[in-house]
Amino acid sequence: MNGLREQRGAAIELSRVSKAYGSFKALDDISLQIQPGEFMTLLGPSGSGKTTTLNVVAGFTEVSSGTLQIGGSNVVGVPAHKRNIGVVFQHYALFPHMTVGRNVAYPLRLRGVGKAELETRVRRALDMVKMADFAYRYPSELSGGQQQRVALARSIVFDPPLLLMDEPLGALDKKLREWLQLEIKRIHRELGTTFVYVTHDQEEALVLSDRIAVFNRGRIEQIGTGHDLYDAPETLFVGRFIGDSTVLRGAARSDGSSTALDVAGETVTVPRRHRDTDRPVMLLRPEKLVMRKPGVDRSDNENRLSGTVSEAIYLGSGSKYEVLLRDGSTGIVRSSLTDQSFAIGDAVELCFRGADAKLLADDSTADTTLT
Amino acid sequence: MAMHPFTRVLLGLSCLLVAVWLIAPTLVVVPMSFNQNKSLAFPPQGFSWQWYSNFTTNPEWSTSFLNSLKVATIVAILATVLGTLAAFGLDRMRARTAGLLRMLLLTPMVVPGVVLAIGIYAVYLDAQLVGTMTGFVLAHTILALPFVLIAVQASLEVFDKRLETAAASLGAGRLATFRTVTLPLIAPGILSGLLFAFVTSFDEIIVSLFITSPYLKTLPVQIFTSITRDADPTVAAVGTILLCVTTILIGGGLLLLGRERRSGV
Ligand SMILES: Nc1ncnc2c1ncn2[C@@H]1O[C@H](COP(=O)(O)OP(=O)(O)OP(=O)(O)O)[C@@H](O)[C@H]1O
Ligand SMILES: [Mg+2]
Q1: Cβ contacts of residue A181 below 8 Å, gap of 6+?
Q2: Strand partners, A165
């Protein structure tokens, strides 16, 4: 299986790629290596450069500087129609004057594939996206989800070693999106093609990807598995973009082995020195925080912050609470069903082990770019 | 919106009135073409086909008709090719340059026909194009071009250019993309442009009167000279034939445009 993957998928290497529009840098020195057969997701807020990156790889946009290799050969300057890359667009882009069957056959016709082979390959591609019964319909006679499946079939029918998808599910409702995510995952597994997928939805990225590249303002903040990004974010932006988090800010004191933060009069300590910056922040994942009534069970070496429950959200499997801390910031806690439950307005304490907190450099842009 | 039945009847009646007002003068030629006497009096007397047969047998009429057909056909093709190319150029140009150029290309529609005719006549005298086929074709192409431009531009506006990007990603070069995606999708616009160009040339009279010669007449010129010379009801017969043909052509053109509007959304 793995051997097959190596064969079918192309490796991609973007090295120090920049793209400028006038003085504005849509891509600012991007380097990204994608393994053959890998499912790589480009994740980031609107305007962060995801589509631009995809367009550069597809050949729709020329780079301002840097190199781009696909399958080991340099493709800078090669026009899009000679790159042999499948592309799925958010807006489907099916040809309205052709039936589903002719749409899917289109790339094969261009390649001069004979009639018999063409028919079997079109059928196979339509089977793969479960649209074989619709071959004689026109795109206008299909729903959005069906159109996108046809578009997917059309982009894989010519066996490209690389498939690019730019928010392909962006226009669909949640249920359909979740189902199609699983379909895309299955197709990726069956084909062994390299997939590069663009989304601004972090949950979608986590469901689909082998690795995720997090974009922010034309730069890549971090590349890693979903697990890496959630457990070991390297920047505050990544920590905030992936999953829920509580961010603590305050005056920092560092001694030989630990760092203390003064959060509105309450001191929290992490048994680690921080290196990069003189303005560290602490980032905590919801499941690392425990919420208690104030003054209960004062076991030592635990950090605690007092606050007030400002929002209680019932999630079925448990609850999620938002807690207004003394410095005005919001803490996010998740609790399971068996835990004690709290109501809005309750005074509480948030407790955590110092070792569970991440120390990151403060980044004032991290909050603003998220919205 | 609910409408009072009386209002509806009133509206319908006024529509009918306007329609009759517009069409009646044109329809007058139909009964006149079957007149038994050589007169253009209305109402006509009796019934006969003689003016129709005169149209087909009299060489003055039949050659001018063939001339018009020839000119209009060449003009339609020439104007369609040039107008389509121009529409494409304007579409892919910087917006401000395109706006200026478009205005320039549409001037033949705005400039009074007589002014244009005088200009063309003056140039043709020098170039010895008066009374030549080339002269007619060139002059009519100038007049027909704006119609093609407008029709093709309208269909390019609703054409989704992202489809061309998609075609490129599937392996189609510029030419293949144009042939398989762009052209089929804007074909209705081109076709209606072609029809309008044909009709524009076929019934053009003002410029034609200036550049005509006794040896080369188009049908409208022949009609005009005939009617100023004597009261020959052949004019009415020709008018009736033209009425039928242009109605069919223009109707077809409008139908194509309408279909494209609907599918373009
Ligand atoms: N042709 C262009 N001319 C000028 N600026 C452009 C052009 N194309 C993109 N940009 C700019 O480059 C930046 C990155 O755009 P890009 O489309 O890559 O964002 P994105 O990450 O795909 O965002 P979204 O999630 O909204 O699609 C944006 O600020 C955008 O305005
Ligand atoms: Mg985008």
Answers
A1: A169, A204, A207, A208
A2: A88, A197
Question: ipTM for the complex?
Answer: 0.84
Lowest-confidence pick of A281-295, A346-360, B251-265 = B251-265
Name the β-bridge partners of B159. Answer: none
Do A52 and A191 fall into the same domain? yes
Contact B188, B257 (CB under 8 A): yes
Q: In this structure, are A338 and A215 located in the same domain?
A: no
Say how many Å lie between the CA of residue A51 and the centre of ligand 1. 7
Question: Is A324 among the domain residues?
Answer: yes
Quick one: pLDDT band at residue A366, thresholds 50, 70, 90?
A: low
Distance of alpha carbon B116 from alpha carbon A129, whole angstroms: 61
pLDDT tens figures, A17-27: 999 999 999 99
Name the residue type at position B221.
Answer: V
What is residue A251's predicted lDDT score, i.e. its pLDDT? 84
Query: Which of B159, B160, B170, B181 has the highest number of chain A CBs within 10 A, making it the mutation to test binding with A?
Result: B170
By percentage, how much of chain A surpasses pLDDT 70?
93
Q: Which of these CATH numbers, 1.10.238.10, 3.40.190.10, 1.10.600.10, 1.10.3720.10, describes B49-264?
A: 1.10.3720.10
- Its pTM surpasses 0.90: no
Determine the structural domain holding residue A342 and report its residue range. Answer: 246-367
Q: Are residues A233 and A110 in the same domain?
A: yes
CATH for A23: 3.40.50.300
Q: Longest C-alpha distance within chain B, in Å? A: 71
Domain total for chain A? 2
**pLDDT of B197 higher than 90:** yes
Same domain, A222 and A282: no
pLDDT of residue A337: 67
Residues A250 and A335 in one domain: yes
**The A266-270 sheet, strands edge to edge:** A251-254, A259-263, A266-270
Assigned token pair, B79: 């104007």
CB of A52 within 6 A of ligand 1: the answer is: yes
**Neighbouring-strand partners of residue A291:** A350
Contacts of B170 in chain A (CB under 8 A): 81, 106-107, 110, 154-155, 158
Backbone angles phi, psi at A225, to 5 degrees: -70, 165
**pLDDT given at position B230:** 81
The CA distance from B206 to B221, in Å, is 9
Q: What is the mean pLDDT of residues A327-334?
A: 88
